[in-house]
Amino acid sequence: MRIDDKLAAQLKELGVELKPGVSLAEATSLGIGGTTDEILLRRYESIPEVIHLLADAGIKHRFLGGGSNVLVTDGELPFVVLHLPTTQPGMRVEGNAAYVDASADLGGTVTFCAKHDLGGMEGLIGVPGSIGGALRMNAGAYGTQIGPHVREVELYRAATGQIETLRGDEIRFDYRHTSFAPEDIMLRVKLELPSKPFKEILAGIKICNEKRRSSQPLNQKSAGCIFKNPQGGSAGRMIDDLGLKGHRVGDAMVSDRHANFFVNTDKASSADMLKLIEDVREKVQSAYGVELHNEVIVWQN
Ligand SMILES: Cc1cc2nc3c(=O)[nH]c(=O)nc-3n(C[C@H](O)[C@H](O)[C@H](O)COP(=O)(O)OP(=O)(O)OC[C@H]3O[C@@H](n4cnc5c(N)ncnc54)[C@H](O)[C@@H]3O)c2cc1C
């Protein structure tokens, strides 16, 4: 999707930086996806007006965080991508509260808080991506999720077209799902974290890093787990037990290290990855009678 000169000029007046023809294959951890124009939202207060201008021009948009949980279709994309600046995101600690910009790196936030003797998020250390993405997905690992630590979220709310602040207890955080509306844009969060000595947090972080390194294909292009775990079960275990590790469609392959990680071994297309996902879903459905639901977010149109 290309933004024409007139709209580009209007957007620039709002302090937006436009990046034409950005490759989402380069902006996502799967390394798959076509090109589109990117709108860098440098001034939060102009977001309602930016969204309004796009809607008036009939231009669809998607919000891209760290790009570690999206599978994007190939070719010229039928939407523009919104993004927050990632250089020097705001991060500060006051007592047991951490105030963090949504564009901040999740792992960087965990270590920043650790240095201030605030723990509780050790399990999230190896989860790539931004705080915004973690809030949207309720990122979690090794028994820790971000949701329980959230006290406030400042966001652009699609329902009202305004920037507002929601209290943590106004937001539902479920397993890899939250009550934010699809077009809400998270801007800042206040987290409340338990006090813990830095050394203890560091020891927890080391254990989680080690677990991750020993079980996940961290040197290959992936989006983490493709499927959510079904209630009481493990999608990875089911796929593994069907002997599907190494199963491939083109360059899209079920990882031979972790069966719920699907990797792009070289130049997988989005069609390859989608076909692999459907193949595996069908095989699991027919073997176990269980329908697996995507954890990865698919952007097709
Ligand atoms: C190697 C690897 C390991 C992983 N391990 C885990 C794990 O253990 N646990 C886990 O939960 N996940 C894991 N993931 C998946 C992924 O890292 C998380 O889902 C992460 O929280 C996504 O953040 P992101 O910024 O990259 O989001 P993106 O991939 O950019 O976006 C994901 C979704 O969030 C939305 N979004 C992002 N930022 C915002 C924002 N500011 N406002 C509104 N919406 C937003 C996007 O529109 C999209 O719908 C892993 C991924 C990889 C590649």
Describe the structure.
This protein has 301 residues and is α+β, with helices and mostly antiparallel strands. The radius of gyration is 20 Å and the shape is globular. The chain contains eight helices and 18 strands. The chain folds into three domains: 13-83, 2-Layer Sandwich (Uridine Diphospho-n-acetylenolpyruvylglucosamine Reductase, domain 2); 91-214, Uridine Diphospho-n-acetylenolpyruvylglucosamine Reductase, domain 3 (2-Layer Sandwich), CATH 3.30.465; 218-299, Alpha-Beta Complex (Uridine Diphospho-n-acetylenolpyruvylglucosamine Reductase, domain 1), CATH 3.90.78. It has helices spanning 5-13, 24-27, 47-56, 106-115, 131-137, 198-215, 235-241, 270-288; strands spanning 17-23, 35-40, 61-63, 70-72, 80-83, 91-94, 97-101, 140-141, 144-145, 150-157, 162-167, 173-174, 177-178, 185-192, 248-249, 252-254, 262-264, 297-299. Strand 16 and strand 17 (262-264) form a beta hairpin. The strands form six sheets. It has a five-stranded antiparallel sheet, covered by helices on one side. Strands 1-2-5-3 form a four-stranded mixed sheet. The structure holds flavin-adenine dinucleotide. The site of flavin-adenine dinucleotide has 32 residues, from strand 3, helix 5, strand 8 and strand 14.
